[in-house]
Design brief:
By secondary structure, this protein is of the alpha/beta class. It folds into 2 domains: 17-113 and 226-319, Rossmann fold (3-Layer(aba) Sandwich), CATH 3.40.50.150; 141-223, DNA polymerase, domain 1 (Orthogonal Bundle), CATH 1.10.150. 41% of the residues lie in helices and 14% in strands. Strands 1, 2, 3, 4, 5, 6, 7 and 8 form an 8-stranded mixed sheet that branches. Helix 2 (41-49) links the parallel strand 1 and strand 2 (55-60). Helix 7 (156-167) crosses helix 8 (172-185), helix 7 (156-167) packs across helix 10 (212-223) and helix 8 crosses helix 9 (191-201). The longest helix has 16 residues, at 254-269. It is globular and about 60 Å long.
């Protein structure tokens, strides 16, 4: 048995933990990829379920997450390999480690509690700390482009597309125009600067949640190229799985969930040619069996303990043999 991790600044309750563990279909000796290892909450439980000789490959773009996971998972010894890397490059990572296939892949998308709660990282939009929160939002702080950079140079059309595509934001065009007008007067450097423009745009009035939620979400996705990373990462995950292996994905907003749903659906039906195409020309093959026709949400008991799980949606698919 391993001791309960200390409640340090990075620790957070992993969402839908038992549901994820069940979906992963873990067995002793399994090789599992946690593509977004975060603070190591899911990873620790996976390692316990795959004892005594299961192996976990943990990836994360956030260097702070890797350092925290190293500390939290230290007692599991050489059963753990942690790498600061995007899951979009999972195929290259496994090739470097000389691992031809894995038994399961878990992707817990979105932003961690630590990132949300740390004003210096720029993900936080709370009005109480907005003046001290730089518009950063980089998952990987080794990269150069921040949210402030994007807000300074993006065209009105780019801004509108991000707000529409990545957050389904009502009033996306109006907000984009006002951001361009505001930056002519002064650069947008802090969360308070951006919140002031959001207030002027009067978008999201009457919503249950702060309208800044969707705006910051869209910018975070753009800064970290999350949409492309997710598409590439799902493909890499599917290709890395052995036949019978499990793909388990937790998403936290509708845009993410749509991408996951459609990619699983396409991999489950194989051919993606238009319906009236007489002969398949795409060459697609059936590679997955979708297990969750509808996403699994957090239950009432979990929501009472962890309100941040309210938007979590779990989808599961199984790798199948490709027909010749």
């Amino acid at each position: 048995m391993h001791s309960t991790p200390k409640q340090n600044e990075f620790f957070h309750r992993p969402a839908l933990l038992e549901e994820c563990l069940t979906a992963l279909a873990l067995q002793p000796g399994a090789i599992v990829v946690d593509g977004t290892v975060g603070g190591g909450g899911h990873a620790a439980a996976i390692l316990e379920r795959t004892a005594p000789d299961g192996r976990l490959i943990g990836l994360d773009l956030d260097g702070e997450a890797i350092r925290e996971s190293q500390q939290r998972l230290e007692s599991f010894g050489d059963r753990v390999t942690l790498i600061q890397e995007s899951f979009r490059n999972l195929d290259a990572v496994l090739a470097h480690l000389e691992i031809p296939e894995v038994d399961a892949v878990l992707l817990d998308l979105g932003v961690s509690s630590h990132q949300l709660d740390s004003p210096t990282r720029g993900f936080r939009f709370s009005s109480e700390t907005a003046a001290d929160t730089p518009l950063d939002m980089r998952m990987d702080q080794r990269s150069g482009t921040t949210a402030a950079d994007l807000l300074r140079r993006a065209s009105p059309e780019q801004l509108e597309n991000w707000f529409s595509d990545y957050a389904d934001l009502p009033g996306a065009r109006k907000l984009a125009r006002l951001i361009v007008a505001a930056r002519r007067r002064a650069p947008l450097r802090t969360a308070a600067d951006l919140r002031a423009v959001i207030a002027d745009a009067r978008i999201g009035r009457g919503r249950r949640h702060d309208p800044a939620t969707l705006v910051f979400q869209a910018l975070r996705v753009a800064v970290n190229d999350e949409a492309n990373a997710l598409s590439e990462g799902l493909e890499a995950a599917i290709e890395s799985l052995r036949v019978g292996g499990q793909l388990v994905v937790l998403s936290y907003h509708s845009g993410e969930d749509r991408v996951v749903k459609h990619r699983m659906r396409d991999a489950a039906r194989g051919c993606t040619c238009p319906p009236r195409t007489p002969v398949c020309i795409c060459g697609g093959k059936v590679r997955l069996r979708v297990i969750t026709r509808r996403p699994i949400p957090a239950g009432d008991a979990e929501l009472r303990e962890n309100p941040r799980a309210r938007s979590a949606r779990l989808r599961v698919a199984e790798r199948v043999a490709e027909a010749s």
